[in-house]
User: What shape does this take?
Amino acid sequence: MVNAAYVVVALPLLGFAVNLAFGRRLGEPLAGWVGTAAATGSFVATLVTWVAMLGKPANMRVADLGIYNWVPVAGLHVSLGLLVDPLSLTMLLFVTGVSSVIHLYSVGYMHRDPGFDRFFIYLNLFLFSMVVLVLADNFLFSFVGWEGVGFCSYGLIGFWFQREVAAVAAKKAFITNRIGDVGFLVAILFIFFHFGSLNYSRVLGTLVGGHPTGLMAGAPGAIATSTATAITMLLFLGAVGKSAQIPLYIWLPDAMEGPTPISALIHAATMVTAGVYLMARIAPMLHYAPDTSWMIASVGAGSAFLAATIACAQDDIKKCLAYSTISQLGYMFMAEGAGDYTDGLFHMLTHAFFKALLFLAAGAVIHAMADRQDMKQMGGLARYMPLTAVTFICAWLAISGIVPFAGFWSKDAILDGVWQFNKVLWGIGAFTAGLTAYYMSRQVALVFLGRARWQEARPSLAAEPALSGGHEEGPGEGHPEPGLPAHPHGGEPHDATWTMSLPLVLLAIASVLGGGINFDAFGHFDFLSRFLAPIFPTATPVTVSTATKWALSLVTLAACLTGLALGLRTWVTAEHPSLEPAFLQRAWFYDEAVAATASGPLRSGASALAFVVDSRWVDGAVNGVAAALRASGRALRWVQTGYLRSYLIGMSLGLIAVLAYLTFRVGS
Amino acid sequence: MSVPGDWYLVLAAVLFGIGAAGLVVRRNILVMYMCIELMLNAVNLTFVTFSRMLDDLGGQDAVFFVLVVAAAEVVVGLGIIVAIYRRRAGATADDVNSLKG
Amino acid sequence: MSLFAATGLAVASAWAVYAVGTALILAGALAVVLLRNPVHCALGLVTTIFGIALMFIDQGAYFLAAVQVIVYAGAIVILFLFVIMLLGVDKKEPRAPANVRSLGPVAAGLGVVAVVELLVLARVHYWADGAKSTTAALSGPGADVQKLGQSIFTSYLLPFEMTSALLVIAVVAAVALVRRRGSSPPQPPAKKVGALRPSLPGQAATAPSAPPAHQTAAAASRGPAAASSPSERRAIG
Assistant: This one.
């Protein structure tokens, strides 16, 4: 029943079509249930496929299902096909699973929003694109999904497009993604040029009869280092754009303008992990490009550290989580750069659980706070929203890397691999782990503990001061109509409806128990590693001794606990401006630097090109040709005498000249 | 055996040259027209000669059509000349120079 | 290449025919170019035409020779003479006015150069390099009329039809060209034979912009439209 993979792809598309055609008529909440049903059905089909795959021996779990022969051009054969193997199954499981949960959450979150059906149209289309991206069996079909998620991200970030900030953020996301897409496209060209095919199995090798073939076999010299480096670098550029690493991360914080379920789904769990997936997919080629692996690991480490520092000074609850996402993605790339793909994917899984949970809980908080997102205006909500608080705390402990929550296991697995790769990067990773604990504790303290600052801020709702953090706050992510009451129910903040709370609970359970997926400390519970191992034969095995692993874990744990304690104690009271310097709040002035470059040198360069090169030189050349023609015409006018006889003499002269030429040619 | 074709070709070329020279020199429109007819005849002679030299019937076909077209052309040309002469008697080729650039 | 090298009556007679034909042709051509009276020029043209017909017979194109005499000498030159008589240009052509540069010497010089070049080329036999035809051979069984007819009505049918249409158009054009305003019958001639007074009221707008002489060689299909579109508009109205 591996063919259930077709259902995985078809159901979201069907949901999209149904909602597109009948969404307005179905209305709220039926359109939402249709979307959720499609997503859940997709998840069930994934489970079926997975179980079917498990029935096969470990090194034979690759199935190539074709749908349609798309481009049968001479030399280039691209088909729409699905590649079901452990990597795509892993991705699919958590993509469809988290997606179903978030669909359910959105039914409650988008209650009374006028664009309810449009939301679910986009959501299902997004799920379809993501599934295509993950399941495709060739680069081009994957790229279709890649672009699809980019487009849906644009549509969903700018969902409340009447707000100019949201529209601008959507554009920024799309354009930044585009820059990465250039890398992907050029890489596709390179791949086709070098391999003559775009199919994953043919380019990267596959398991045939249980044995790796092609690049997957890892034979030395199977591909020139320069070629592999070029292709992987370009693909990494694409990944950087999609997964918000340095230098293309600027779109992710702004993407928080979209509704919170979107932030949870797209910008925490699924779309931003597309880059991680891509790097894992091209693992066989990365084996031949050590330079690219270095770059991946370094960029990952740098992004992790940079984003963590910025997150320490953010006041917006969602922006803090956005930078946290960038930071955690950096960890995943660090792992992949170190050759430890399994652990990178493990962290991707656990991160999906706890980050989605964090975002969804933040959404519940925002709802309760009447769409305000400034953490400085919250506080003491643990009393009023116990369920949300408990789930948030589960996620907090997970992301902070506290044993035995999920994040501890995955982060430590990554850091073990990185220790083996490079000690400096490990140092950065460990320090960042401490920072992560610190800023997450800061968040927990500001939101759920301490004084209920929102009660004091309530009377002055209309006179909220301009907030630090470098972004407009005002009505938060609010609904476009003014005049909505300060609180949907006019009462005190409380836990959300079951449609929003059930997902929180589910994800909290996953965050707590998620470590069990790849638990290799005591005995052989490393399901994920064993599941993924056959398709990563070129991965670098982590040969750190158990004693070293224990030591490293203890060091990291200590760092995390320190950060945690510091954060909690310091931020129970909210007044510490010295700990929030401007350059951190303004994200190291990166956006400002980009804007200055664009409006300064870029603009003067562009205007030079437009007004000097184009207007004067090019137009001048073209007009000059016309002027030259006119002048020559005027000069030659004397030939037209109007007299027949002079024309005839001209003709005869020409004839004589031709005859003369013939004569001399014949004579000589 | 008859005269080799080259002689006919030279003759035709000379005839053509005379016709062209006459076209340039004479100013009476009708005489210029007759010089054009001389040139057409030279061409006809050339065609027939080549037809014989190359053993190809196409040359004679061409002459056939040239005759027809020359007849039609004479008709129209004379009509034009009559029209010109109606406007101004004694007009010569030099008087129709309004296409001067 | 001389007459004295080969013997035989056939050769001599071939050369004799050639000589006579050449004499006729060149005499006629020079008459056309040099004589002052247009009627004399027309007679020279007839002479040339007969010479050409002689050459055609000599080369085996009997039908074409007959057609040449009938059409050219019998129709075209007659037309010329009609027009000459009608327009009264049978008087001597006046000498060139002073302001027109005489191009006689120039033309003569160019002609000499051309002839010299031709003779050089003839000397080297740089003439017929073309490939022999695969469709219609001149030699072979059958009279040349039969072969010519077959060729025209099969391979060259389209040009044949087109030239037929061309003739019809030429006739229409000729009629259209010489119609006058108000389609009144032409005025009776004045005192001089064939002379027309340009001040007659019906002729003011005839051929307003006098078409250049080189348009006489234009295709007949353009005749009605080109030269006298005003007259055509008037006439067809």
Notes: Chain A touches chain C through 15 residues (CB under 8 Å).
